[in-house]
Amino acid sequence: MVRADWGVMKTAVVWFRxxxxxxxxxxxxxxxxxxxxxxxxxxxxxxxxxxWPMGSASRWxxxxxxxxxxxxxxxxxxxxxxxRGAEFQSLVRLMIETGAGSVYWNRLYEPTAxxxxxxxxxVLRGEGLTVETFNSALLxxxxxxxxxxxxxxxxFTPFWKAVRQRGLDRAPxxxxxxxxxxxxxxxxVPLEELGLLPRIPWDAGFHEFWRAGEQAARQRLxxxxxxxxxxxxxxxDRPDLPATSRLSPHLHFGEIGPRQVVQAMRDxxxxxxxxxxxxxxxxxxxxxFAYHLLYHFPETTDEPLEPRFAGFPWAEGYQAHxxxxxxGRTGLPLVDAGMRELWHTGWMHNRVxxxxxxxxxxxxxxxxxEGARWFWDILVDADLANNTLGWQWTAGCGADxxxxxxxxxPVLQGQRFxxxxxxxxxxxxxxxxxxxxxxxxxxxxxxxxxxxxxxxLDNTYPRPxxxxxxxxxxxxxxxERIKKR
DNA sequence: TGAAATGTTGGGGCG
DNA sequence: ACGCCCCAACATTTC
Length: 485
Description:
Blueprint lengths: L10 E6 L9 H9 L2 E8 L11 H20 L5 E4 L2 H12 L3 E5 L4 H16 L3 E5 L21 H11 L39 H4 L4 H14 L4 H4 L12 H5 L5 H10 L6 H23 L22 H9 L5 H13 L4 H14 L4 H11 L5 H12 L14 H8 L4 H6 L8 H4 L7 H7 L14 H13 L5
The chain binds a DNA duplex through α14 and α21.
């Protein structure tokens, strides 16, 4: 095969974005197959993302993930070039500098990213350059799954059925065995100068819970399959147990891809864990559904999909309640435990996410956008598609949403899913001395029990900021006003 | 991927 | 022995 025709080496830029891995990276694989020289680049653009610029926790993760990616590239003989500046200009400059005639990237699906990438692709192609884009993030492109007649799905169950009929098998790309070096003359900005790490070290605790990067992602997947997958269907709703995969931030940054995850489920020889694999694949299905919805209904990041919710009578003057929710001092132990887990680790168990979201939007009648905004900033797995779906689902205004009357009771949810109170004890230590019978409702505990546990209501721990029964009735009345006639 | 209110049933205490 | 009542326990309906 003659490739280095006329003695000119072909150079390709691989533009990394949220595909921070070498295995199962179709853009990288295609570039390696097509060119002799590879320039891997990450471009840190100016504040972008429209209404949704990357949050603090995401930036923390990104910093460490880029560090890991650079390490992986170096082990193969290459390195990551890090640039700062507007994406288009940075890309053009780099291509001119390196003599690259082509650029490869894996697609993003956020509305602002689609608009930007489409424009970059158009202009570069107009200049006669090669632009090739790929799917690394999803099992199917959002437009590949369609209803009869071409409309998008709005219900998960038929969507998932269509996905299953299409089949989940997508062979992951193998990683390159080696990569050509990047010339010394190609300069980059040191990672530290991107300013991704917070100035105030509120992230100090994150290191205890997370390790970013492709290797860590793979390890977590393997450990999950080996140790927890069998119990996943029965225990995944238990925040007090290590029953979930915690892959979400790795998936968000593309340190591992859904194809690899599905393959791990399939390859697992213990078929008695079939139910676990099925249940976990279904969760990947929700992720696919979220991207499907974001692609087809891009305005839902800010507006309810269900138009009648535009006139919903949300509470006014809710700042104090919002702050109590954010800081984990609502007086509802399960809610506070969740919000503090979020603050300390950048992550929250999914069952608890539903409970705190229901409490915010229904018991406090605070607009779901406020919750989405807070999660966006604090979650290490903050993902526009998933976050939007999750909040609209809880608020009852989204696709396949929870009916408006479905209001979680944080006490009952706590008793059901944290029966011994271990989760609350861990994150709300001032309640740790309470017996299980009162851990989820300290305000109902006899004074002798409180005293023995060292709990002084209103002092060491607040009473509930709203009455559960009354606020539930208020929410039902509010929803009644926008009910479909 | 609810909770509360309301309805039904059946065991057991008791006159 | 029988009927009455109470009330868990469970089922159904409603929000």
